[in-house]
Structures are given as C-alpha cells and as structure tokens.
Here is the input.
Amino acid sequence: MRKLVRQHFRFFLFAILAAIALRLLFIFRFPGVVTDSFVYGDIAKNWLQHSIFGQSGQEISPTYVRLPGYPAFLVAVFAIFGIEHYRAALVVQMFVDIGTCFLIADVARRVISDRAAKAAFLLTALCPFLASYVAAALTETLEVFFTTLALDLAIIGIEKLDMGMLRPWFGCGLAVGAAILLRPDGGLLLAAIIAYLLILLRRAFKRRSGARARHIVLAALVLGCVALAPLVPWTWRNFRTMGRFEPLAPRYANEEDEFVPMGFNRWIKTWIVDYTSVEEIYWPAPGNALDVGKLPDRAFDSPEQRQETVEALADYNNELHFDPELDARFAAIAAERIHNAPLRYYVWLPLLRIVDMWLRPRTETLPSDSRWWEFNDDPKWSALAVGLGVIGLLYVGAAGMGLVRGGPIKHLGLLLTFVVLRSAFLGTLENPEPRYTLECYPVVIILASALWGKISWQKS
Here is the structure.
C-alpha cells in the first residue's frame, strides 16, 4: 500500500480529509453514548480506579457480562484523557476507522488490483454506515478494524503457504483474538478462516501435494492457538472469581442469578423480522409496558392464539417483569406456533431477519423514526432515512454487480464464507439489528471495488 499511496498521494490525501470530515460530522452532530456505552464505561472506570473488572452498585461487583476488549480500550482512553471522556474515545475510533480504510484497500489490492484498491479506499472513506458507528461508544468500529486486519493477514498467509511462512498466521490469530475479546461473535471470523483452510487442504490432498497440506495444517494450528489463547486468562478469571466456566460472555449479558425469560425470547423469534419490533417489543421488556397494537398480524395464528397472547402481555404489563410461570405461558405459545409452522420458524423468518439487517436504512444511531416508511417524522429525518436506505442498496447492489461482472477476485471463497457464515448466524437472533452486518461491509466494499478493478492482479 505504501507504494500505491506514494504514487497517488493527492488522491489519498483528499480521500482521508473527506473521511475525517464525515466522521467528525457524526461525532459532533450525532454522538452515540448509549446505555451499553455506560455499561462499558462503568466497567472501565472500576477496572482503572479499583483494579476490579466489575459494575458499580452499593459496592463494586465483579462481572462477566461483557468481554474485556472494549473496556480495555476505554481504560486506555480514560487513563490519557480523563475518566468518562467518551468524546475522546470517539475521536480515537475515527483514526482507527481511517486505518480500516487502508486495510480494506490493501485487501482489494491483493485480490483484485491497484485500481480497485483506490475505489475501495474511497468507498470506505465515504461510507456513512461505518462513519456513524465511529460516533458510537460501542464495539463496532474496533470490531470492523480487526475483522479486516484478520482477513488481510489471512490472504497474505494463504499466498505464502508454499513458502511455509507462519508469521502472517500469527498476526492473523492476534487479530482474530482481538475481535473475539470485543464481541463473542468474533469467533465466526475464526470459523470462516478455518473452513476456508479446510477447503484448501482438500484441494491439496486431491493434488497430492503433501508439503502444501502440511503447511495448511500448521497454519490452522497456529491461527487457532493464537486466536484462542487470550480467552484462557479470561476463562480462568471467571472461574476463579465467579465460580463459573464462561469462556466468552453470557448470551443475554445476564448476571449469574438474573432470570432470563427464555420462553418470551422464543416467542419473539416466532414472528419478529425487523428492527422496529426490536425497539418496540423486545428491548422494552422487562421494565416497560408493551403495546399489543405494535404486534404484526404474523404474531398470531388464530383468534384463540391472539387472545391468549393478549392476556399474557396484559399480565406482564401489570407487573412489568417476567416470573417463571408467565414465561412458561409464552413458551407454550411459542411451542404451538413452531409446531404449526416449523418452516416459518426455522427457514423463512431467519431469512427475513437477514434481509432486514442487510437492507434496512441504517438510522438506529440517528434521530430518524424507525418506522420510516410511514413518513410521520420530521421531513428532514424522513428524507435522511430514505437517503441512507438508497445508499445501502447502492453498496449492496454494487457488491453484487462486482461479484457477477467485476472480473476475477482471488480468494473469493474466503470472503464469501465469512459473509455467508455470519449472515446465517445473525438469522438465528431474536434482535435483528442492522449494526450486526457492519463486520461484513469490508467484503461488500471489496466486491464493489471489483467494478473499477478490471485490470491484471498485482503481486503481493
């Protein structure tokens, strides 16, 4: 990349300035310090001031509801700029995201061409979805950076397999490990790379290339060991401090003695497909009243089931919390719905959730109404929602066009394996949030850049 930057210095300079301007706009106009941000910040503050990875209360209680990656980032920021200086964290994230621009460009350079690298850099620099999460004190910006770094190093390692070089795989393992320490679903990145290495191993066996097969196995071992090594001290800490084997973090970010309404969650998954329902039904419970009128018609299979659901929600609204008996009623409704339509539960609804996460206007960090299609919002926010929806379609559409008509892309299997695996996992969640597909956007941008990269591959 250094040679490419020197050759086109003015292009990269103006692109970087545009990227900084866009991200600063979001940071100062739409800063996103939300509930989860304060959870991370509270843990970081206690870790920094009291050497306890825990949450505040009457006393500081050790916790494992969040992985240590993002709190560690905030500890570094707070130590330099001051406790709870979240805006400083957002500015640091801006520079991390500029680094992501270079990494995505480098992947495009390796798998397509120099020309594609320039296009990828510009598409990343001007991407409003990546820029908007720079302004959110959440894990997304760092997660996208380490995901791209891991893919870049994996591609370098694959290209050096015949030389038996392990250094790229060591670096790839570190990047994957960092992604896992930020979010549990970072493990999907490790699974995707290992799966692609298994495909290469099968090809090596077919070609009877024993040396290459050995190099692939050794690369996979190095990658796996290095990526998972950071989880060992975390798992040991949880077992020693909390008395529980927890190598990642609880699925529902719950404390050990906190009741999780699994029946309610299962019922949610029998009908939810969009982010609007996450905001209106899933997130408010427990603690807030739920409006039955916000439920779509697909939440009921019959008038009798509708009545049963309305009664269960009315009982919840009276207490604003779930007990095992009420949760069992939701579980029974869910079991009936799954029995009536198993394909809907296991196939169609997950597919619709995936589509919603990929194509919905990404306004969750902005003032726009999540029910953007009703146009009941302030006209400027409705226009923003529609505009972002169009931009999202253009990015995904350009990626599809690049895949079909953009010419050859080296190591395409690795990139697509990651996107498919992550998308399939996201379809199983009961909270389809568009931000969960951001980790796939480096691949989207790389595929889109193929439209501008129909020239010969460049050497790594």
Q: What stands out?
A: The longest strand covers residues 54-55. The two ends are 10 Å apart (CA to CA). The CA atoms of residues 39 and 433 lie 19 Å apart. The chain is about 65% helix and 0% strand.
